[in-house]
Amino acid sequence: MEWLISSNLLECTKLKSLFLVHNNLLSFDTACLPKSLTILNLSSNKIKTLVGDFSSTNIEKLYLQHNDLRNSFSNRWEQRVFFGPSIKFVDVICNHLSKYDVAGILDDLSNKPQFDILNVEQSLCVDLPDPYKEQARKVRKLNH
């Protein structure tokens, strides 16, 4: 992660897409991302911890599949916003998530005007906890 911080991505003010696939990252700090970024792919790493959030970014497409983000989103309802207003697509397939993680993600995404697709395992969409059923109905598409 230190090499990523020292790469001075914040100075890349015209960077639109960043693909950090298969880098064996254990954590990721969102503070190193430039505001110009619209696509972020962190797939197939070993991320267990997301430091910070994406609320002040312009990210439209976020790929987080094939990491280990178990319990990273289950308590989002009690914290500040996680995704920014530009978010359209989120992929969290194969992250060992619980239905409570999915509920936490939906809680935030259902309030985003441009949100369109959440890609998550079908088994996690069944029997969402009661407080989240209404928010899940607001989601335009739920891929599985």
Task: Summarize, please.
The chain has helices at 2-6, 99-109, 130-138; strands at residues 17-19, 27-29, 39-41, 49-51, 61-63, 89-91, 117-119, 141-143. With 144 residues, the chain is an alpha/beta fold.
Describe the strand arrangement of the main beta sheet, using strand numbers: 1-3-5-6-7-8
- Measured by DSSP, the beta-strand proportion falls in 15-25%
Q: Choose one word for the global shape.
A: globular
Low-confidence stretches: none
CATH topology: Leucine-rich repeat, LRR (right-handed beta-alpha superhelix)
CATH architecture: Alpha-Beta Horseshoe
Number of domains: 1
Count every helix, treating DSSP H or I runs of 4 or more residues as helices. Answer: 3
Calculate the terminal CA-CA distance, rounded to whole Å.
31 Å
Order of helices and strands: HEEEEEEHEHE
Query: Mind describing the biggest β-sheet?
Result: 6 strands, parallel
Overall average residue pLDDT: 85
CATH class: Alpha Beta
Helix content: 10-25%
**CATH homolog superfamily:** Ribonuclease Inhibitor
